[in-house]
Amino acid sequence: MRAPIGSFDEARPVTERLDVLPAPVAGAFRAWRSPVPADQVLYVGIDPELADTAAFVEHYGKDLEDASVNCVIVAAKRGGETTLAACLVRSATRLDVNNTVRRRLGARKASFAPRETATGETGMEYGSITPIGLPAGWPLLIDATVAALPYALIGSGTRRGKLIAPGKALAGLPGAALVEDLGR
Q1: Helix (H, G, I), strand (E, B), or coil: what is residue 114?
Q2: What is the mean pLDDT of the chain?
Q3: Cα separations (Å) of 158 from 1, 43, 83, 86, 125?
Q4: What is the spatial distance between Cα 58 and Cα 28, in angstroms, rounded to a whole number?
Q5: What's this model's pTM, rounded to 2 decimal places?
Q6: How is 153-173 classified by DSSP, letter by letter?
Q7: Which of 36, 128, 150, 170 has most Cβ atoms within 10 angstroms of its Cβ?
Q8: pLDDT at residue 46, rounded to an integer
Q9: Phi and psi dihedrals of 69, rounded to 5?
């Protein structure tokens, strides 16, 4: 099957590739409840050395610049309590952690979660964290422009693959909230 974006050797419905996904991600697809069927999300295998956005776009297609989305894990603190949350923004933008994220999560302070925390809490590889399969109860803030994408390119939980998902499928994930100007 040919991917709707990028120049990948092969794209397959993610439901056919659950065996290559980390347990939390595969489990989320097995329990998928969304108006967008899980088989409309595609898995593409990639060279893990090219998983970072700039190298990835250069190798797999310039059209991916507009569709590439980062999942950033943040730690929001208030009154001695820390809340972890995930934020989805287009790769060409910067996450507004100090203002939009902090206010939205009702925190006194918000910052990028340490690498060890992000990977340890999600069970995913750094540089390929995906919003699919996040721990139950985590807030998921999604920039409104991401939800409007016909196809978003996101991590798969492992640096050996990416997922291509309709933006509306991401907007329907558990805990998701659309936020205007989350990325600037």
Answers
A1: coil
A2: 94
A3: 21, 11, 24, 17, 5
A4: 30
A5: 0.95
A6: EEE-SSTTEEEEE-HHHHHTS
A7: 170
A8: 93
A9: -130, 135
Residues contacting 3, CB < 8 A, separation 6+? 11, 42, 44, 164
Average pLDDT over residues 67-82: 95
87, 130 Cβ separation under 8 angstroms: no
| CA dist 60 → 6, 33, 169 (Å) | 6, 30, 23
What is the tens place of the pLDDT at every residue in 96-148?
Answer: 999 999 999 999 999 999 999 999 999 999 989 999 999 999 999 999 999 99
How many angstroms separate the CA atoms of 90 and 99, rounded? 18
> How wide is the angle at C-alpha 100 spanned by C-alphas 108 and 32, nearest 5°?
105
